[in-house]
Amino acid sequence: MLYHNLTGTAPFPGTPVTPNVPFRVNGRTGQTVTFYYTYSHPAGGERTTFGQPQSFTLAPCGAPTPLNQSRFMADWRRVHFPEQILSDPALESEIWGDHADPDGDGYTNIMEAYLGMNPLLADVPRAEFWQPENQADPLWSVSLPAHLPEGLLRIESSGNMLHWHPIESTADEPSGGSARQTHHFQFVQGSAASYFRFVID
Predict the structure, then answer these.
(1) Tally of structural domains, the chain
(2) Cα–Cα 20 to 30 A to 170, which of 11, 31, 155, 163?
(3) Which secondary structure element, helix H or strand E, spans residue 46, and what is its range?
């Protein structure tokens, strides 16, 4: 269920939506759409992003508004850190800087910001993805939480983020009771941009 509005304040009307199916939002150029989701989880129960709503500003198709990263991060820091922390330069490297990781979960502040996460609340790592050092090596890897039910996970690739195609993968057995499991898949990087996603049904 998608909850969104163009004012940023309640109420947020709810609309049933389907994953990976485009949803049209009607608004004027320059308006900001604020939204959050509730959804069923494969492990059971319902999850919500109510506590971490996200937003974007409407712009004409073909003329996206460039993201001012400095302003984006400054606004994000003011939301998550008190002024007395932000005004102390000695705390930049450990608390409020772009590359700091105050909750120690492995996600730096800039990663937390772009992923819509809380920098003061440790998150379970979702996916750790890496490509081979040798660009000619077609074997890529991703580390995910272990013990996902068999058959629920699939890895897909796309050249335009509209049409997705499954990629065959193999998984290593978790060692020593590890909570992580490494999946490998074959992919040869071409000249065009490529995107990946990890789908849990």
Answers:
(1) 3
(2) 163
(3) strand 46-48
Residue showing tokens 């009307």? 13
Give the containing element (helix H, strand E) for 38.
strand 32-40
- Residue 4, beta-bridge partner list: 35
Q: What is the pLDDT at residue 140?
A: 73
Instruction: Tell me: do 10 and 45 sit in the same domain.
Output: yes
CA 126/CA 145 separation, integer angstroms: 7
State the Cα–Cα distance between residues 71 and 77, nearest whole angstrom. Answer: 10
Q: Which amino acid is at 25?
A: V
User: Is 0.85 surpassed by the pTM of this model?
Assistant: no
123 domain residue, yes or no:
no
Strand partners, 115: none
pLDDT tens, 174-200? 666 666 677 777 766 665 667 777 665
136 in the Ramachandran plot: left (φ > 0), alpha (ψ -120 to 50) or beta? alpha
Which tokens hold the place of 167?
């990629």
**Sheet with 195-200: strands ordered across:** 165-167, 153-158, 195-200
- Residue 142 and residue 172 share a domain: yes
Q: Cβ distance 53 to 35 under 8 Å?
A: yes
